[in-house]
Structure formats: C-alpha cells, structure tokens
Amino acid sequence: EQEIFWLVEEMVLLISTYIQSERSSCAIYFSASTLTQRWKSNKSHISNVFPPSLSTGAGGWSPLTSDQYQWLEVDLGERTKLTAVATQGRYGSSDWLTSYLLMFSDTGHNWQQYRQEDSIGAFPGNSNADSVVQYKLQQPVIARFLRLFPLDWNPIGRIGLRLEAYGCPHTSDVVSLDGSSSLVYRLSPGLRRTSKEVVSLNLKTLRNSGTLLHAEGWGGLSLSLELERGKLLLLLRQGGTSSSEPRRLASLGSLLDDQHWHRVVLERQSAHLNLTVDKHTETVQIPAEFIQSLDSENPVISTRDFHGCLENLLYNDLNLIEQAKRNDHQVTVMGNVTFSCAEPVTIAVTFPGPQSFLQVPGPTVSTLGGLSVGFQFRTWNKVGLLLTFDLLQQGGVAWLNSFPSPGSALNDGQWHSVDLNSRYGRFTITVDKKEGGVSSPSFPVTVGRQLFFGGKNNSENCSNPFDIFQGCMRLLTVDNQPVDLIMVQQRLLGNYSHLQIDMCGITDRCSPSHCEHGGRCSQSWTVFHCNCSDSAVYEQSCEAYKHNGNTSGHYYIDVDGSGPIKPQLVYCNMTEENTWMVIQHNNSELTRVRPSPGVNQHLLYFDYSSEEEHLLAVISQSEHCEQELSYHCRKSQGSPFSWWLGGPGPGHLQTYWGGAQPDSQQCACGLQGDCVDPQHYCNCDADRTEWTEDSGLLTHMGSLPVRSLVLGDIQRPGSEATYRVGPLRCHGDKNLWNAAFFDKETSYLHFPTFHGELSADITFLFKTTSSSGVFLENLGIKDFIRIELSSSTQVVFSFDVGNGPLEVHVESSVPLNDNRWHRVRAERNVKEALLQLDELPAATQEAPADGHFHLQLNSQLFIGGTASRQKGFRGCIRSLQLNGVTLDLEERAKITPGVRPGCPGHCSSYGSLCLNQGHCVERASGFHCDCGLSAYAGVFCHTEVSASFKSDTSVSYTFKEPYEFIRNSSALPSSIYSDTTLRGENVSLSFRTNQSPALLLYVSSHYREYLALLINEYDKLEVRYKLDNNREAEVLTSSTRSLANGQLHTVAIQRVTNSVSVQVTHTHCSIYTVSVDTVDSTHLSVYQNSDDLDPDLAKLASLGFIGCLSAVHFNSINPLKAALLHPDTSPIIIAGPLVQSSCGSSASANPYTAENTHHLSGTSEDLNTFSISLILGKVK
C-alpha cells in the first residue's frame, strides 16, 4: 500500500493505492414528484364534502412513488404574507401525511426551511383522510413559492394530500445596491431632532460585509451599522475616517449573507438604543457626545459599499425608498440604484448527515489525465471529507479532507473556496484564492470517471477513513464547467443520497448564545457546546458570601443570579455584626473646591464602579443603604446655592443634606436643633468666617446613590469649601432570608404564570422533617414543570415541553428531612436540563436534538403544593428565585391560610460557622456568632486577638469573688468572669518570639500554688505545676525543640485532677501525672510582686517577654481579649506598652491577611492548633 498526503491550510489530500478487488456496482434511481394521471388541480383544495361527480377521482395530490424525495410546490403568483397552512388526506382513500416539512422561496430557488421555535422542522399531519389539521405559523412568512416535503405517511397507504395556505398579498418598496451605490437622507433645514428615532428595514444579500447604515455628527463622530462576516455590528467612530479604530457597541445576527430577507430595526430613545435583528434585540447606551453632535446639515442616514437589496427602508415612518423614487430633495441617489431586487441564482446543496453524498461525472475523456475541480463550502465541523475520486491506473482512491490547523479556521460558518488541479502528475490545492501546496506523486495519476462530494456511496469497496462532511456546498465546477445541481435533483445527472438541494440548511446555534455566566459558545453542525472554564457562578450579595463562611474581601456580586445583570466586583466588609457591601466611586476623599475664573458653580459627577442596573438592584434588595455627605465651609453658604442629585438614572434634585430627612431642606444640625446659628437649619448657612461643617449619612434609599454635586457661593473673597461623598454602603439581603413555612400538606402559595419559555433557572433552599412533598409546580395544556422531594433522600426535577415528560433526579447519601437547610438548583434550557442538590455533583439530561424548545405554561405557579392540593410540602422554603427574580414568599404568606411568613432555626444549619467556642444566636433574618466565650473575635469568632509585648509589658487578670461578679453582671461580657475553683485547667495560647529563656504565663493562688508556662534555655517548652505546698514544683518538659525561632507556635494544656496533657502545635500530645491537693481558691491573680516567686522563676520573670501572644484562654476566661477590647470593664491591670497586632496570624505577619482570606479553614488540622490561654508579661 502506498500513501501520499500533505496539509495545506486546513485541507488534507490523501492519495491511497490498493490492490483492486472485484467490485459490486449498484444504483438507486428515484423519480421526481410526478403526479398520477388521475390528479386534478381542483381536488387538491381542502373540503369536507366532495361532489359525487368527483368522488371517484384521486381527490388530491399523490405522487407516483411514495418516498422521501417527493414534494409539492405552490406558486402563489406574488410575494404573499403567509400566516397558516392546513392539510387533509386524499379524498376517499387511505392516503394521508402524518408529518411534513415546509419550505419557502421568493424565486423558486434558494429554499428556506420553516422551523418552529427555531428548532423543530416537522409539522404534525393528519390521522385520517377527512379531518383538517391547521397550523398557524408562529412567525408569518413572506414568500412567493411554498414547498411541502412529506416525511411520514399512513403505513398502509401512500402519500396523499390536500393543501391550503392562508395569507394576504405583501406590498413593499425595494431598492438594489451594487456595492458602490447608496442612498443619502438629510433632515429638512430647521427640523429639530426628536428624542425618539426609529430606522427599520429588511435586507437581503450574498455578501458577508458592507456598511448598511451610516449617521454622522460634528467633530468626526459617526455611528454605523456594518455587516462583517455575516453579523451586524453597531460601531462608533471618532475621527471622521473609516480607518479610525471603531468602538463596538453591539453585535447581533449571524449568517445574514444567506440571500434571505432579514428584519433590522434601530430604535433610539434619548441615549438608549435597541438594535433588533430578526427576533433578537440588544440594548446599548449611546455616548451623550454623539447625541449632542448630530447635525441637521450632515447626512443622517446613508448606505455605503453594501451589495444587496433593501426593502421598506423607513425613518420615523418616512419611506425613504418611496421618497427616492419621487426624486425627493431629502433623499439623494448615488451610483447605480435600481428599484427592484436583482437576485442571482446560486444553487447550494446541504449535506446533513452520514449517508449524504453527491456523485457527478468526472473529467471528460480528453482530460482523463488531469483534473480541475472547484467548489465553495461552509460548515461548523472541524473535519470532514470534501471530495473523493478513484485513481484508475493505480487502483486506488484520493480523498480531499478538511482538517484543523493553528491560525486558520475553515469551520467558522463562512463560505470558503477550494480549487483542486491535477496536471502532468502534479496536484495543486488552492484555498480561498491562496495556493496552499503542491504534491508530485511518484506514479502517474489518472482520475476516475466519477467524483464524490461530501462522502461516497457505501457500496464502493474502499472505506472512508475520514469523518463525514456536514455542511453546504455551492458553485461546483468540473473542468471549469458548472455542475447543474437542478439536473442532479431531477435525476438527469449523476446521483445523490440524503441531500437537500437548492438550499443551505446551516444554523448558527451560538447566535444568540445560550451559554450563561460568561461561558463561551462553540458548535458543530448538530450541537453547541458551552466552555465554562472562564465562567463562574457568583453569590448575589455579601450576606450570601458570609453565610458560606467567607471573610472580608473583594467579591464578584451577581445580584440577579441567572438574570441579565452582569456580575460586579465590590468590597464586602464582614468585620461588624452587619455585613456591608461597599461600592466605590471616582472620588470618595475629602476634596477642596478651588474657585475658577468666571465659574459661579462647580458641578461634580460621581462614577461608580458598578453599572447602573447593578447599583439599583443592590439598593432594592438591601435592608439598609447609606452614604456619607459632608460639606465643610468657611464663608460659603450651602442653601440655596448648593444641592445634589441622587437616585436612579441621572438623579433627582435633592435639597436636604447628610443626617436630615428628604424634602426637609435641612441639615443634621437643623434636625437636632444644635446649629451654630439657631436662625438657620444648616451650619454653613450661617456664613461664618471660621470653618464649620454639615455632615451626616444619607439613608433614604430612593435618593441613593449620590450622582452629582453642585456647589455655589465659593467665588467671594475668603470663601472656601471642601466636600466628601463617601462610598455607597448597604447591608442585609431581603432576598436571601425571604422565607415561608408550610404547615399543612394542603397549603400552598400561588403566583402568576412562570415565563421560562427558553430558559428556566430556579434556585431555592428548603428544610423539612417530612419525607416527600412538591416544592414547585406550574402546568400548561400539555407542558408542565415540577420540582419535588420524592423521598427522604431524593429530589426530582420533571418537565414536558412537548417532547414527552423528562426527569432529572439527584440522590443524597444522607437524609434530607433533617431540618437543616438544603440548596436546590434546577435549570432547563434548549440544550439540557440540570439538577443540583447542595454540593453534590449535578445530574443532567440532554434535550432532544430536534425537539421543542418553548415551555408553554398557562396556570398559576404553585409553591409548596399543587393545584390538586395533594403531595404538598411541609416545611420551609427560602430564597426562591426564578430566572433571577426573587418571589416574595413572606408577603404572600401573610395573606395565605396555612402558610406563615419567615422561618426560624438557622443555627441548626449555620451554627458550625461559629468557631473557637463561639455561640450561634438566632435572628429574625439569619444568625450571628456571639464570641463572648471565645478568645477570638470577628464575625465567626475566627480572628486571632493578638498583642505585641515589650520587655516591660505585663497584663494581670484578677478573678473576682462570686458575689462581686454577680453584682456586676450588667458589665461587658459576662464570659470574662468564671468559677475560680481550680480542680482542673484548660489553657491554650499562641506565641511568637526569638527570646530564650522566657516566661509566657504565670497563674498563682493565695496559697502559693502556681502554674507557670515558659521556654527554657534549651528552646523547649516547660510547664511547672506546684499544686501541693508540701512538695516541690513538678517540671513537665515537651520534646519539641526550637520554639524561640520567630515562628508561631500553639500550646494547649489540659489538667483533670492529677492528669496533665500538653500539646505543642501539631506534635503528639504528651500525658503527665502530677501530685495535687485540693485547690479551692477564690482569688487567683497574676502576681505583680516577684518576691512571691520561686527564685529561678523570679529571675526569669524579671527579664520580661518580647514577642507576640495570641488567643489566650484560661478555662472560660480570655484575659488578652479583655485587655485589648474591654479594658475599662474587666478586672485587668496593664503595665507598659500593649499593642494589638496581627502577629498571631498563622498565615503571615501581614495585618491584612485575614481580610483577604476568602475561605474559612475548617479542617481537622486547624482544630489541632486551636489556642486558648492566660498571658503574663514581666512579673515585677
């Protein structure tokens, strides 16, 4: 066997020779749609009753052969707007269609298939010969020719049909442009532009590029609608030349060079512009400078280098083509313009599947030694067999195959040309007019008499080693002569199988993209794929991030989930009890206003880091928002010379200031009655020569955010002013905690019908003690959607969009009726259905490849139950969102029997987030962690409380008598005080030092029993216990070395009677036994008098401690936390400098590390380094 191949652009030509064996040849010939001799045209009309004289006739259309290659074509005589079709079987027979396809054309060529819902090609037919089945077209079609293709028919009969089409004549004005011609429209002199402008048209072209519309303004600004690679781009240019780099505002449509009519509408409302192409619309914001620059002397609308036809070109209902026909002075015709649509006839052929091939005669006898083949193709597939032919003398075969290569893409859906030439033993391939490569086989090449495009008849002996071709071809030539594909279709030339001739059936499944969350869409001929590697699913608020266990930092907030608003980066401050979302703008600093000559007022704009829709959604779903507004003045009055604008859009005029109420025309001091001049309601209005200010928080959410600030009265001699507009701060999430409790199986909430025709994205949380129940249900005539708990371990998502019921289910390994919150996410789109439960892997179910898309519902949406009042859900449902919209369960529950608003018991699910002995406390909306008993602080009791010690720093904590701390129980944290009878200790702390030896902690009683924790001179940890006055102190030494190395170490000591365990960082716990008497002291303190210490401890204590101590815990006492956070209300004595720092952070010494950590470390290793203890610095 001998093979030669090479790669050129994305083409592979493989020539293979083989020993020819005996071949079997076969041919299948199909008849065209020939009518029976009995057929009569008047009998093709639908009728319920036929006259007796016609009852013996054929009674409709029936071809001689009933197979998949038949069709019925109707010439309507003129372009007609078709709205419905109806079919009936052949009269008095068993002949009827059960399904069929419809195609339309303006010219009788270049047919276009009508698809329901952009997917389904087949129409339902009849079930008998007499009944009429009418189908109303969802989108009316304008065409002159109609073709009906039978798909299936009565199996005991033949193809039989009576057909009627419904519609009305279509009139239009058409203009044909040749690429150098154009129309230019100018506004009448003196005519003012309106705030709303609409340009609409239909276009038809074979070219994939050209400027469709162009509008000019002052200063070289221009807005153009350009066709590029079959898409429409809305471009803004500045500079007056087409070579200037444009700014893309929108991109819409695809495959617009298919020589079919496409609808285009541009609608401007002020600065908002809607671009619609066919059925899809994109909204963009036009820069204000362009709106202001439009000049009535310049062209408003013009066409440039567009080659094709335009129909019904309207500007604000003014027909510009009609005006051009009348030679109206406002419309100028430039170049060769004709008022009809010149449509070149180009026959394409579609290869839809693996059995598709086209066989045409090869080179003539005079050119058998050579070959010249040309064609164009378009496809989405990366590889595919384009051309096959036999090698006669060598007994072999040659394959021309498309192949992917870096930097080149022939699977982009565009038309690409291929020319293959063989002369004098040389093969040459040219792709898109660029010669790709030349091969010289080592044997003479003689091409066979048949060429196979797109595949090869399977009866041939040599199998195809390549993937089949799926796509379109056109402009086929052999020996520089065009191949007549209509003759092929009529079986007068060559052969074919499973082709669609005289049409290109390519579909762009990525326009518009169905991929969500920034996923990139790619496609093959039959399916599309979403690349989600760069996409992410974000939480909808800082509150949601907090309840996932995250800490302060920057996060992307997707405020409407799967809705249209894009995620935005904000700062989440979780250091307080409330979780604040902070949205910055371009200037939140205190800024001095400097007078400018000739300027009486200063206008200041604030641009926020979030887009407009995101800002308004954040304010709407937050429980509280605020923004600081401060005005510092010296001889500069505020009212009436200054004001601000706030609220949606550009904002509304506001005359009140920070700390006051809307419409009060006051400042905070006026509301409180303490202005510097009682005659005024603002301090600055007093016009004092000394500095004063009016500052406060704006909290009226309808007035937020602050958009702009106007400051006046700063031009007078001696006038000065500064201002500050702080960032927008919001806390709370009304959506996250919006919940309802269903206490009966027959109870439910109902809402309006859910509109999730193409995409349904549903998320919610539930908790229950029941083993089953329906969460959600919405019904249609046949369609439905339902989510339910089918058992204590299974959630099921089921629906029907016309293809039959489909189910997706997820099984949990643990019971779901545990009265804890569980999250459900169900999604259904045109590609698949998905169901995810908590953090379990998502289950998916693919949608049928050629099935229904639209979910058609018409009943009310039922939550927590069903319309039949059976299988209802008992429990709580929270944070229910449908396609990014939160349903207000609480408001509806207030007026619904059997349902209660809200749902308590969050600590059962979120209590584990409270770390280090933090206590979970229920709130009406959510929970919070009480860190009073913890040595840690922070929203989850996770923040180390650390301090840096100098050699003369000491902290002593004196235990109070029982009657004392009972008497002072109203003081700050009661957890500071504890039972002081020492029958055992639970001590822990973290430290970081380079000092050796060093005393870390010392606890003693009145009876001179003590506990000392120190680093000895060998850098080891020592624990000294003296619990019996009659014995010497016992020394427990850890085996861990090098503790004075500047690294963070954690010590945990636990004593129960005479058994002591000591653990250092991650080392194994050491167990010791000590001698002990009963210790019962109510006054234990960190002694200040070194005379009471053992001599060796006194010497060590006199050195003091230099380093860091953190998270000190002694039984239930947190002395370091008390000293740092509550020094005035705790029995604490501090000597020397005590500086709070982040030195106890195990990650690093960076004080901001904790804020930038976005995930809690709740692993077993972290629990092993848990630190709680008592601290002593220098003992004096």
From TrEMBL:
Q: SUPFAM superfamilies, per this entry?
A: Concanavalin A-like lectins/glucanases, Fibrinogen C-terminal domain-like, Galactose-binding domain-like
GO cellular component terms listed in the entry, alphabetical order: membrane
Q: List the disulfide bonds.
A: C876-C903
Gene3D superfamilies given for it? Answer: 2.60.120.1000, 2.60.120.200, Galactose-binding domain-like, Laminin
Q: Which PROSITE patterns match?
A: EGF_3, FA58C_1, FA58C_3, FIBRINOGEN_C_2, LAM_G_DOMAIN
Q: Where is the F5/8 type C domain?
A: 61-168
Q: Name one Pfam family in it.
A: F5_F8_type_C
Q: Which residue intervals define the domain Laminin G in the entry? A: 174-341, 347-504, 738-903, 961-1143
Q: Which UniProt keywords apply?
A: Disulfide bond, EGF-like domain, Membrane, Repeat, Signal, Transmembrane, Transmembrane helix
Q: Please tell me where this protein is predominantly located.
A: membrane
Q: How does it sit in the membrane?
A: Single-pass type I membrane protein
Identify the residues that the record assigns to the EGF-like domain, covering every copy. 506-543, 904-942
SMART domains, per the entry: FA58C, LamG
Quick check: keyword Membrane in the entry?
Answer: yes
Coiled-coil features, chain-numbered ranges: none
Q: InterPro entries, alphabetically? A: ConA-like_dom_sf, EGF, FA58C, Fibrinogen-like_C, Fibrinogen_a/b/g_C_dom, Galactose-bd-like_sf, Laminin_G, Neurexin-related_CASP
Q: Where in the cell is it found?
A: Membrane
Q: Where is the Fibrinogen C-terminal domain?
A: 533-585
Name the family: Belongs to the neurexin family.
* Record protein name field: Contactin associated protein like 3
